[in-house]
Amino acid sequence: MKKISLIVLFFVCIYSYSNCQNLTETKLEDPVKKTVKYRKLKLGLDYASTITFKGRQDSSRLFSISPYLDYRGKYGLFAKVSLDDVPGTKKGFDELNASIGWDHSFTDKLDCSIGYSHYFYNSQVARIKASVSNEIAANISYDWDWLYTYIGVDLDGGNNKFPYKGKIVTKKTRDVYLVFSNSHEFSFDFFTERSDNLTINPGVDFLFGTQNFLVTYKGKTDPANATNAVYQKQASRFALTGIMLDLDIKYTRKKLTFFLSPNYTFPKNVPPGESSTPYLVVNASVYLTFKGKKK
Protein backbone atom coordinates (compact mmCIF):
# COMPACT_ATOMS: atom_id res chain seq x y z
CA MET A 1 0.00 0.00 0.00
CA LYS A 2 2.91 2.34 0.74
CA LYS A 3 4.26 1.76 -2.80
CA ILE A 4 0.87 2.60 -4.37
CA SER A 5 0.60 5.80 -2.31
CA LEU A 6 4.04 6.95 -3.50
CA ILE A 7 3.11 6.33 -7.15
CA VAL A 8 -0.14 8.31 -6.85
CA LEU A 9 1.82 11.13 -5.20
CA PHE A 10 4.35 11.07 -8.07
CA PHE A 11 1.66 11.62 -10.71
CA VAL A 12 0.00 14.36 -8.67
CA CYS A 13 3.39 16.08 -8.53
CA ILE A 14 3.69 15.89 -12.34
CA TYR A 15 0.41 17.78 -12.66
CA SER A 16 1.34 20.39 -10.05
CA TYR A 17 4.72 21.00 -11.65
CA SER A 18 3.09 21.50 -15.06
CA ASN A 19 1.67 24.85 -13.93
CA CYS A 20 5.08 26.41 -14.46
CA GLN A 21 6.64 23.94 -16.91
CA ASN A 22 5.39 22.90 -20.35
CA LEU A 23 5.52 19.45 -20.12
CA THR A 24 0.86 14.22 -25.15
CA GLU A 25 -1.02 9.24 -26.09
CA THR A 26 -1.07 5.59 -27.63
CA LYS A 27 -4.21 4.24 -29.43
CA LEU A 28 -7.09 3.05 -27.23
CA GLU A 29 -8.75 6.33 -26.37
CA ASP A 30 -9.24 8.59 -29.39
CA PRO A 31 -7.94 6.84 -32.55
CA VAL A 32 -7.63 10.04 -34.58
CA LYS A 33 -4.95 12.66 -35.21
CA LYS A 34 -2.78 13.44 -32.19
CA THR A 35 -1.89 17.04 -33.06
CA VAL A 36 -1.69 18.61 -29.61
CA LYS A 37 -1.17 22.39 -29.42
CA TYR A 38 -1.70 22.84 -25.71
CA ARG A 39 -1.40 21.11 -22.39
CA LYS A 40 -4.49 19.28 -21.19
CA LEU A 41 -5.67 17.32 -18.21
CA LYS A 42 -8.44 14.72 -18.37
CA LEU A 43 -10.38 13.56 -15.34
CA GLY A 44 -12.69 10.68 -16.19
CA LEU A 45 -14.33 7.35 -15.56
CA ASP A 46 -14.06 4.26 -17.82
CA TYR A 47 -16.46 1.31 -17.99
CA ALA A 48 -16.00 -2.11 -19.60
CA SER A 49 -18.89 -4.59 -19.89
CA THR A 50 -16.53 -7.53 -19.46
CA ILE A 51 -12.85 -7.98 -18.60
CA THR A 52 -10.64 -8.83 -21.57
CA PHE A 53 -6.96 -8.82 -22.41
CA LYS A 54 -5.31 -9.11 -25.84
CA GLY A 55 -8.36 -10.64 -27.50
CA ARG A 56 -9.17 -13.10 -24.69
CA GLN A 57 -12.00 -12.97 -22.13
CA ASP A 58 -11.80 -13.40 -18.39
CA SER A 59 -13.79 -16.42 -17.20
CA SER A 60 -15.63 -14.36 -14.57
CA ARG A 61 -17.65 -12.25 -17.08
CA LEU A 62 -17.66 -9.32 -14.62
CA PHE A 63 -17.71 -5.64 -15.60
CA SER A 64 -15.20 -3.06 -14.39
CA ILE A 65 -15.06 0.67 -13.71
CA SER A 66 -11.92 2.80 -13.68
CA PRO A 67 -11.54 6.41 -12.54
CA TYR A 68 -8.46 8.00 -14.07
CA LEU A 69 -6.30 11.10 -14.33
CA ASP A 70 -4.62 11.72 -17.71
CA TYR A 71 -2.13 14.50 -18.46
CA ARG A 72 -0.96 15.45 -21.99
CA GLY A 73 1.85 17.96 -22.45
CA LYS A 74 2.52 20.35 -25.29
CA TYR A 75 5.88 18.79 -26.14
CA GLY A 76 4.71 15.18 -26.33
CA LEU A 77 5.11 13.83 -22.79
CA PHE A 78 2.10 12.11 -21.26
CA ALA A 79 1.25 10.42 -17.98
CA LYS A 80 -1.82 8.54 -16.81
CA VAL A 81 -2.87 6.86 -13.60
CA SER A 82 -6.06 4.83 -13.10
CA LEU A 83 -7.69 2.65 -10.47
CA ASP A 84 -9.67 -0.45 -11.51
CA ASP A 85 -12.60 -1.77 -9.53
CA VAL A 86 -14.60 -4.93 -10.29
CA PRO A 87 -17.89 -4.64 -8.36
CA GLY A 88 -18.82 -7.82 -6.55
CA THR A 89 -15.27 -8.95 -5.77
CA LYS A 90 -15.28 -7.28 -2.32
CA LYS A 91 -11.73 -6.03 -2.77
CA GLY A 92 -12.47 -2.38 -3.52
CA PHE A 93 -10.01 -0.81 -5.93
CA ASP A 94 -7.77 -3.80 -6.52
CA GLU A 95 -5.62 -2.56 -9.40
CA LEU A 96 -3.50 0.55 -10.01
CA ASN A 97 -2.29 1.27 -13.55
CA ALA A 98 0.42 3.85 -14.17
CA SER A 99 1.68 4.91 -17.62
CA ILE A 100 4.20 7.40 -18.93
CA GLY A 101 5.44 8.07 -22.45
CA TRP A 102 5.99 10.40 -25.39
CA ASP A 103 4.07 11.26 -28.56
CA HIS A 104 5.60 12.89 -31.62
CA SER A 105 4.08 14.24 -34.84
CA PHE A 106 6.44 14.18 -37.81
CA THR A 107 3.83 15.91 -39.99
CA ASP A 108 0.09 16.63 -39.79
CA LYS A 109 -0.47 13.09 -41.05
CA LEU A 110 2.34 11.00 -39.56
CA ASP A 111 2.53 10.31 -35.80
CA CYS A 112 4.38 7.97 -33.49
CA SER A 113 4.28 7.13 -29.79
CA ILE A 114 6.21 5.13 -27.20
CA GLY A 115 5.24 4.42 -23.63
CA TYR A 116 5.66 2.25 -20.57
CA SER A 117 2.90 0.97 -18.27
CA HIS A 118 3.08 -0.85 -14.96
CA TYR A 119 0.17 -2.65 -13.31
CA PHE A 120 -0.04 -3.07 -9.54
CA TYR A 121 -2.53 -5.61 -8.16
CA ASN A 122 -4.03 -6.65 -4.89
CA SER A 123 -2.31 -9.95 -3.99
CA GLN A 124 -5.65 -11.79 -4.23
CA VAL A 125 -6.52 -10.63 -7.77
CA ALA A 126 -6.61 -13.54 -10.23
CA ARG A 127 -8.12 -11.85 -13.29
CA ILE A 128 -6.76 -12.53 -16.76
CA LYS A 129 -4.86 -9.24 -17.02
CA ALA A 130 -3.21 -9.79 -13.62
CA SER A 131 -0.89 -12.35 -15.22
CA VAL A 132 0.93 -9.36 -16.77
CA SER A 133 2.56 -6.64 -14.71
CA ASN A 134 4.27 -4.32 -17.21
CA GLU A 135 4.17 -3.33 -20.86
CA ILE A 136 6.27 -1.38 -23.35
CA ALA A 137 4.26 -0.12 -26.32
CA ALA A 138 5.28 1.71 -29.49
CA ASN A 139 3.25 2.64 -32.54
CA ILE A 140 3.23 4.65 -35.73
CA SER A 141 0.14 5.93 -37.53
CA TYR A 142 -0.67 7.66 -40.80
CA ASP A 143 -3.75 9.61 -41.87
CA TRP A 144 -4.48 8.99 -45.57
CA ASP A 145 -7.52 11.35 -45.32
CA TRP A 146 -9.87 8.53 -46.37
CA LEU A 147 -8.29 6.02 -43.97
CA TYR A 148 -6.37 6.13 -40.70
CA THR A 149 -3.74 3.36 -40.43
CA TYR A 150 -2.18 2.34 -37.12
CA ILE A 151 0.61 -0.18 -36.49
CA GLY A 152 1.62 -0.96 -32.93
CA VAL A 153 4.09 -3.27 -31.17
CA ASP A 154 3.67 -4.32 -27.51
CA LEU A 155 6.13 -6.17 -25.27
CA ASP A 156 4.57 -7.57 -22.08
CA GLY A 157 6.23 -8.82 -18.92
CA GLY A 158 4.52 -11.22 -16.55
CA ASN A 159 3.57 -11.24 -12.90
CA ASN A 160 5.60 -13.95 -11.14
CA LYS A 161 3.24 -14.02 -8.14
CA PHE A 162 -0.08 -14.86 -9.75
CA PRO A 163 -2.69 -16.54 -7.48
CA TYR A 164 -4.25 -19.62 -9.11
CA LYS A 165 -6.83 -21.58 -7.11
CA GLY A 166 -5.28 -20.60 -3.80
CA LYS A 167 -1.70 -21.29 -4.91
CA ILE A 168 0.93 -18.84 -6.13
CA VAL A 169 2.24 -19.37 -9.67
CA THR A 170 5.86 -18.23 -9.89
CA LYS A 171 6.38 -18.59 -13.65
CA LYS A 172 7.01 -15.26 -15.40
CA THR A 173 5.32 -14.43 -18.70
CA ARG A 174 6.82 -12.85 -21.82
CA ASP A 175 4.69 -11.93 -24.84
CA VAL A 176 5.00 -9.84 -27.99
CA TYR A 177 2.13 -8.39 -30.03
CA LEU A 178 1.63 -6.65 -33.34
CA VAL A 179 -1.55 -4.64 -33.98
CA PHE A 180 -2.59 -3.55 -37.47
CA SER A 181 -5.62 -1.25 -37.53
CA ASN A 182 -7.55 0.77 -40.12
CA SER A 183 -10.38 3.18 -39.42
CA HIS A 184 -12.19 6.19 -40.83
CA GLU A 185 -13.64 9.08 -38.86
CA PHE A 186 -16.90 10.85 -39.67
CA SER A 187 -17.22 14.22 -37.92
CA PHE A 188 -20.45 16.18 -37.34
CA ASP A 189 -20.56 19.72 -35.93
CA PHE A 190 -23.78 20.76 -34.22
CA PHE A 191 -24.56 24.20 -32.88
CA THR A 192 -21.08 25.56 -33.59
CA GLU A 193 -21.57 28.44 -31.18
CA ARG A 194 -21.92 25.87 -28.36
CA SER A 195 -18.85 23.93 -29.46
CA ASP A 196 -20.75 20.64 -29.79
CA ASN A 197 -19.06 17.92 -31.82
CA LEU A 198 -19.92 14.32 -32.69
CA THR A 199 -17.50 11.83 -34.26
CA ILE A 200 -18.17 8.27 -35.39
CA ASN A 201 -15.15 6.10 -36.11
CA PRO A 202 -15.64 2.54 -37.45
CA GLY A 203 -12.56 0.36 -37.81
CA VAL A 204 -11.08 -3.12 -37.94
CA ASP A 205 -8.08 -4.40 -35.96
CA PHE A 206 -5.89 -7.43 -36.58
CA LEU A 207 -3.97 -8.69 -33.54
CA PHE A 208 -0.93 -10.96 -33.93
CA GLY A 209 1.12 -12.28 -31.05
CA THR A 210 1.99 -14.94 -28.50
CA GLN A 211 -0.32 -15.97 -25.66
CA ASN A 212 2.00 -17.07 -22.86
CA PHE A 213 -0.01 -15.04 -20.34
CA LEU A 214 -2.76 -17.67 -20.71
CA VAL A 215 -0.37 -20.36 -19.44
CA THR A 216 -0.08 -18.48 -16.15
CA TYR A 217 -3.76 -17.50 -16.02
CA LYS A 218 -4.92 -21.10 -16.53
CA GLY A 219 -2.28 -22.59 -14.22
CA LYS A 220 -0.79 -24.74 -16.99
CA THR A 221 2.82 -24.07 -16.06
CA ASP A 222 4.05 -27.64 -15.52
CA PRO A 223 5.77 -28.77 -18.78
CA ALA A 224 5.97 -32.36 -17.51
CA ASN A 225 2.21 -32.65 -17.99
CA ALA A 226 1.56 -33.70 -21.63
CA THR A 227 -1.64 -31.64 -21.89
CA ASN A 228 0.12 -28.58 -20.50
CA ALA A 229 3.01 -29.07 -22.93
CA VAL A 230 0.63 -28.95 -25.92
CA TYR A 231 -1.09 -25.88 -24.46
CA GLN A 232 2.24 -24.11 -23.90
CA LYS A 233 3.43 -24.86 -27.44
CA GLN A 234 0.29 -23.34 -28.97
CA ALA A 235 0.42 -20.33 -26.62
CA SER A 236 4.06 -19.58 -27.43
CA ARG A 237 3.50 -19.55 -31.20
CA PHE A 238 3.36 -16.12 -32.86
CA ALA A 239 0.15 -16.05 -34.91
CA LEU A 240 -3.05 -14.15 -35.64
CA THR A 241 -4.92 -14.19 -32.32
CA GLY A 242 -7.92 -11.99 -33.03
CA ILE A 243 -9.89 -9.82 -35.43
CA MET A 244 -11.83 -6.94 -33.88
CA LEU A 245 -14.58 -4.80 -35.39
CA ASP A 246 -14.73 -1.43 -33.62
CA LEU A 247 -17.18 1.45 -33.56
CA ASP A 248 -16.02 4.49 -31.58
CA ILE A 249 -18.62 7.19 -30.92
CA LYS A 250 -17.57 10.42 -29.22
CA TYR A 251 -19.71 13.42 -28.30
CA THR A 252 -18.07 16.56 -26.92
CA ARG A 253 -19.65 19.71 -25.52
CA LYS A 254 -17.21 22.22 -24.12
CA LYS A 255 -15.15 20.40 -21.43
CA LEU A 256 -17.42 17.35 -21.21
CA THR A 257 -16.99 14.26 -23.44
CA PHE A 258 -18.98 11.04 -23.70
CA PHE A 259 -17.21 8.13 -25.40
CA LEU A 260 -18.85 4.83 -26.40
CA SER A 261 -16.96 1.97 -28.07
CA PRO A 262 -18.68 -1.37 -28.73
CA ASN A 263 -16.33 -3.91 -30.34
CA TYR A 264 -16.87 -7.44 -31.58
CA THR A 265 -13.94 -9.85 -31.34
CA PHE A 266 -13.31 -13.03 -33.33
CA PRO A 267 -10.70 -15.11 -31.43
CA LYS A 268 -8.19 -16.94 -33.63
CA ASN A 269 -5.61 -19.69 -32.98
CA VAL A 270 -6.79 -20.30 -29.41
CA PRO A 271 -4.93 -22.89 -27.28
CA PRO A 272 -6.64 -26.29 -26.71
CA GLY A 273 -9.76 -26.02 -24.55
CA GLU A 274 -10.17 -22.24 -24.91
CA SER A 275 -13.27 -20.71 -26.49
CA SER A 276 -13.18 -19.46 -30.08
CA THR A 277 -16.72 -18.05 -29.90
CA PRO A 278 -16.91 -14.37 -30.99
CA TYR A 279 -17.91 -11.96 -28.24
CA LEU A 280 -19.07 -8.37 -27.78
CA VAL A 281 -17.50 -5.89 -25.36
CA VAL A 282 -18.90 -2.43 -24.70
CA ASN A 283 -16.46 0.20 -23.45
CA ALA A 284 -17.63 3.62 -22.34
CA SER A 285 -16.05 6.70 -20.84
CA VAL A 286 -17.06 10.11 -19.57
CA TYR A 287 -14.44 12.76 -18.86
CA LEU A 288 -13.74 16.43 -18.35
CA THR A 289 -10.87 18.08 -20.27
CA PHE A 290 -9.07 21.11 -18.90
CA LYS A 291 -6.86 22.79 -21.47
CA GLY A 292 -3.89 25.06 -20.90
CA LYS A 293 -3.30 28.28 -22.82
CA LYS A 294 -2.06 28.03 -26.40
CA LYS A 295 1.34 29.52 -27.15
Describe this structure in words.
The chain is mainly β. The chain has three helices and 17 strands. It has helices at residues 2-17, 212-217, 226-235, and strands at 40-48, 52-53, 56-57, 64-72, 77-85, 93-105, 110-121, 132-143, 148-158, 162-164, 167-169, 174-183, 186-190, 196-209, 239-253, 256-267, 279-291. The strands form three sheets. The protein has a twelve-stranded antiparallel beta barrel with strand order 1-4-5-6-7-8-9-12-14-15-16-17. The chain has a two-stranded antiparallel sheet with strand order 2-3. Strand 10 and strand 11 (167-169) form a beta hairpin.
Task: Provide keyphrases for this structure.
3 helices, single chain, disordered N terminus, globular, mainly beta, 295 residues, two-stranded antiparallel sheet
In short:
Helices cover 11% and strands 52% of the residues.
